[in-house]
Amino acid sequence: MKAVMSMMLGVMTAIGGFVDIGNLVTSGITGARFGMTLTWAVLVGTLGMALFAEMAGRVTAVTRKPIFHVVRERLGVRMSVVNAGASTLLNVLTLAAELGGVSLVLQMVTGISYLIWVPLAGLFAWLVIWRMPFGWMENIFGLLGLGLIVFVVALFRLPTNWPAMWHQAVNPGVPAGQPAPTWWFYAVTLIGACIVPYQVIFFSSGGREEGWTSKSMTEMRVNAFIGFPLGGLLSLAIMAAAVPVLEPAGIQVSHLNQVAVPVAAALGRAGLAIVFVSFFAATFAAAAESGLSSGYSVAQYMGWSWGKRHPPGAAARFHLVCLASVIAATAFTLTTIDPVTVTIFAVVLGAAAVPLTYFPIVIVANDARLMGERVNRRWANAAGTFFMLIMVVVSLASLPLLLLTKAGQ
Amino acid sequence: MTRWDEDEFTANDLLLDRELIDSRGMPAGRVDDLELTVPGPGEPPVLTALLCGPTAFGPRLGGRLGTWWQAIGRRLRPVTDSYPNRIVVELVDHVDRLEITLLTPRENLDSYRFRQWAEEKVIGRIPGSTK
At A339, which CATH number? Predict the structure, then answer.
């Protein structure tokens, strides 16, 4: 019974943890602009994330090595320094986007400019990194993030045209009057919002923090194969809720509060309150996790002691990197750069960087001498290789599309 | 005497870039380079030490970044000699596919200085760093 309960808790936190500022922004924008025609991109991204996380989690559970150990040992010192550097910069950019998201939510609630909230959000994210036990951090914010289910509820209260949305979802194509490159660009952002490098770094390093072994395989797989897809479903619900409300009104989403409008229209103040709490939890948890992930990647690359299971004094360099990342991201957000734009850039660059961490994990998951009987099965290799190809195409397409569409305008 | 899990292997396979674990199970850095010594004329070289730290890591990175890394490392050293920190092979306990374990706690290694600095000058001064 206790095992079942803990597994359910794991799934629920995985659902809440899957959705962050990237999913909120990209789902809202695409639902309002393209209807459900980009459903396939969320499905591709979610499936890719589940496969990637399962492989990374399995490697960590069996070898006790999270992702950046493996990266340095497999790619060699030169290639992997590029990799660790790129990932860390990306984590800081994501952290800036999440801090912007947290502050925007607080602005919506209090009416006080988000810039006032940015330093406080940074300070509290750092305090969570510094002191809060790992399990608490995952559970509290993961469960609060589940409040996003109000988007599903809202769908049933809104004049949702289910057959038309289903038709769009199964017959994807560029909607009339929309430029094709922009549609493809947003497809890349949706995939990038689902397969986020920091989430995989966090998932595999978190497994080490919680002391996963080969026996934890079921728990880990349930999180990756049930929790993450349900999180992907929540992203789709956010997209779908925008269709009956924002699309007919011709509203182009350029601010986080517009993403919440469908719930306000369907469920009034109570719904809106739940949205604010879950937006806050989702972005705040992601802020702490992306900050930690900077520390994880640098410390694992260098072979320093890392993680929240040590007192900060025993993992001093790891905490130094986390602290520096939070300060850098806070400063970056305080430049008044639009947090929604930062989010778009973060997910696109994230999509471009996925092969850097995905490729070494596939290699190690195939190494029978390290993995023993937990080596990749044939289906896992077929699926893993297929997604590697997709991610290479996405990665190559992302930057040209970013420039061509001027970030989706 | 060092225990080796495998009889025949390449440096890339089991030594270079591998994680070092000290005698108390704490991470103690990575193997940045190797020191091989020729014991006498005509004899094959033998492994005498694992090398760690920026002055070993920089040259392996190569390029401008490697030169910078090495230069920074050299300037921060307490001694003028730029030879990297050595972990003599006698201190190595066990080498396997996962990691390299040492016979000494990491506090005794020369490569420990940056950690000490980070702890004493920054992290240790923030309240709540010891629990």
Answer: 1.20.1740.10
Residue A67 CB partners (closer than 8 Å, separation 6+): A56, A59, A60, A200, A201, A204, A205, A297, A300, A357, A360, A361
- Residue ranges of chain B whose CB lies within 8 Å of a chain A CB: 16-20, 26-30, 32, 57, 60-62, 65, 97-98, 114-115, 118-119, 122-124, 126, 128-131
CA distance A15 to chain B (A): 31
Which top CATH class is B3-125? mainly beta
- Alpha-helical (H) ranges within B8-111 are 11-14, 54-61, 63-75
Q: What is the pLDDT of residues A48-68, one digit of tens each?
A: 999 999 999 999 999 888 989
Interface confidence: ipTM more than 0.90: yes
Query: What percentage of chain B has pLDDT greater than the value 90?
Result: 57
Q: What is the domain count for chain A?
A: 1
Percent of chain B with pLDDT over 70: 100
In a domain, A397, yes or no: yes
Instruction: State how far the Cα of A401 lies from the Cα of A407, in Å rounded to an integer.
Output: 8
Read off the pTM. Answer: 0.95
User: Which range marks the domain in which residue A229 is found?
Assistant: 2-404
